Amino acid sequence: MSEFRFELRVCRWAERAWPPGERDGPVVVARQLGSTHRRWDTVVVECDPEGLRARAAFGPAALDSDLLHVVRDAPAEWTWYRDALPEPDYPWRYVREAIDRAADRDAVQRRTRSNRVEIRRVRPYPDWVRRVVAVENKPDLDAAAARDLRPQLEYDVALGLADEVWVATRTTAERVEPVLLEDLPVETGVLVVDDRSVSGDGPTTDARPPRPTADVVWHPRTLDPDETGTRVLERPDGGTRDRSAARFEYLSPAAKDERRLVIAERAYERGWRSYVETMRPDCRQFRLRGEGTALLPYCEAKCRGQTAAECAGSCPQFEPEPPAWRARGAPVEGGPGVAQRRLLERRRRRRRPGVEE
Ligand code: SF4
User: Are 164 and 258 members of one domain?
Assistant: First the structure.
């Protein structure tokens, strides 16, 4: 089955049911996020409810690391910015640029006195992120896929950027799930997702198929983001002639804290429904189809759920919406493609309490 579609189902399940077992506060779910060295399939940010509401006052767009540097340390009283902010490990002029950007979006106040730029906070930046959880999605996890996945999971465990690392795979309904027999790091949790009753194929019907469910078959070990992380840069291939040593670098707890927050901010902005931005909802064959309460992409021409990669301008069956469709209600409403984007955006907004856009 398509990994893309499985990933969307895992995201929707996590939004509704994370953490497995008992609901404990709101979550923000996104896909394909991480750092330059490693991208996670699904990211679940467990949030403090009050903090999440307070975060909304900073707007729906993510604060990048430069903006966070300014916003988190902006003082309550007017202060010269160099006295207020920690010494950056890059030139101060970039900090001044970030102050301008932060002031433009009303995240701090800025003024010039005696040729000095002073800043003052508008509101404190809240402590809204409780935990960051990384999930790797492999619907068909056979021995070869597990072998390929293992170094990535070991990298995640050694770095400890996420509080927990999980693998989600599709249930086989066998007495012992085969994934448990695969050689995965013991620190990694394993979820088996049952989406057999949810079909992404077949013609469009009005009946709503049931939601996918998931069970924990292996609990993860909680990692410690407050400890120094180890990034494995290179490891020997393990052949009989390979006597080279692995190469590492270390990541301080402060650097990890900043990266976690940058990831959480990007998850906050994008959510998981941003998949539509890389697809072609302006194709007349594109539909959003209900699976339980989720809306997933569906292609009428292919009679199945399409992947993001195939739903592109290069698709041989791509057919632009007829101009007459787009003219309906234009320019305010646009055609069905615009309406479908809007629908997903509305759902994304509902996941960010307190945001006014
Ligand atoms: S025909 Fe191609 S471009 Fe159009 S919705 Fe289907 S996959 Fe996407």
Answer: yes
Kindly report the pTM of this predicted structure.
0.85
CA-nearest of 116, 111, 114, 109 to 92 is 116
Burial class of residue 21 (count of CB atoms within 10 Å of its CB; 0-12, 13-18, 19+): exposed
Question: Nearest Cα to 299, choosing from 273, 277, 272, 281?
Answer: 281
Q: Measuring CA to CA, which residue among 288, 290, 149 is closest to residue 211?
A: 290
- Cβ of 318 closer than 6 Å to ligand 1, yes or no, is yes
Tell me if 278 CB under 6 Å of ligand 1: no
Q: Do 140 and 228 share a structural domain? A: yes
d(C-alpha 59, C-alpha 264), whole Å: 14
Asked if residue 300 has its Cβ within 6 Å of ligand 1, the reply is: no
Q: Does the residue 355 lie in any domain?
A: no
Q: Say yes or no: 137 and 228 in one domain.
A: yes
Cβ of 108: how many Cβ atoms within 10 Å?
26
Tell me if 186 is assigned to some domain.
Answer: yes
pLDDT in tens, 80-112: 999 999 999 889 999 999 999 999 999 999 999
Q: What is the CATH classification number for the domain harbouring 176?
A: 3.40.1350
In terms of residue numbers, what domain contains 323? Answer: 275-350
> Is there a single domain that holds both residue 65 and residue 201?
no
Q: Nearest C-alpha to atom 5 of ligand 1 is from which residue?
A: 286
pLDDT in tens, 281-325: 989 999 988 876 678 899 999 999 999 999 998 999 999 887 776
Cα of 287 from ligand 1 centre, angstroms = 9
Does residue 258 sit in the same domain as residue 336?
no
| Gap between the Cα atoms of 195 and 252, Å rounded | 40
